Structure formats: C-alpha cells, structure tokens
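From the methods appendix. Each design record in this collection lists the tokenized structure first, followed by the designed amino acid sequence. Records were kept in a plain field format so they could be parsed without special tools. The example shown here is representative of the layout used throughout.

RECORD:
FOLD TOKENS (116 positions):
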C-alpha cells in the first residue's frame, strides 16, 4: 500500500509531502500504481525545485520513500499553487482509481514559517 501525505498552507501551496510504500498492484518494474505516484511526485518536486524563489529540500533514502519540504516560496504563489494542485489532484485520481493500493491524506494548516 502506498500512503501519500500532503500538507498545504491556507493558499493551497504544498509545504510538505511524504510518500511511502509499494502498492503491490503489479510486478516490480511493471506496477502502474507505483509508476503513476512516482511520476506525479517527482514531477511536482522537480517543477517546484526549478521555480525562482522556491527552496525545496528532498529526501529519498531508498526505493518506496520520497519526502520533500518547501522551505521557502514567494509571496505571489501562483506558480507553486499550480504545481501543488497538479500533485494533489493527480494523487487523488490514482487513489480513486486504485483504492486498494493507494491512500492519500491532504491536510491544510497554517504554515509556521515559510522562510519569507
């Protein structure tokens, strides 16, 4: 089972994401659920990391684990909000289509310190 946890600030911008586990929906290397979740998370992470004014730290200590934290985002968060929506909606879509293999938890909370 893949468990994805995403924390959003009040503006809908992701400030942390943690994804762990293996879906078990198919053989290693041919698992469409793992592939879908992996590409969504990696694309969102890369997109956020390449944005001007955004600072992201990531951790992927081994297969089946990926986490990242947006340490700093610009005041005008239109671009980070788009990447955040992409990630959340994509993960929710996978969880809807494959509920036995993927769980997504999204919470909105006040950002303690966004680095600005």
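DESIGN:
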């Amino acid at each position: 089972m893949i468990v994805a946890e995403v924390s959003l600030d009040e503006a809908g911008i992701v400030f942390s994401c943690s994804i762990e586990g293996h879906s078990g929906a198919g053989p290693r290397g041919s698992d469409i659920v793992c592939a879908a979740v992996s590409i969504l998370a990696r694309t969102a992470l890369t997109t956020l990391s390449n944005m001007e004014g955004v600072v992201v730290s990531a951790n992927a200590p081994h297969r089946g684990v990926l986490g990242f934290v947006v340490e700093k985002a610009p005041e005008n968060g239109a671009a980070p909000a788009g990447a955040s929506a992409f990630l959340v909606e994509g993960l929710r879509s996978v969880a809807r289509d494959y509920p036995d293999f993927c769980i997504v938890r999204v919470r909105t909370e006040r950002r303690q310190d966004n680095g600005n």
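APPENDIX NOTE: The first helix runs from residue 32 to 49.
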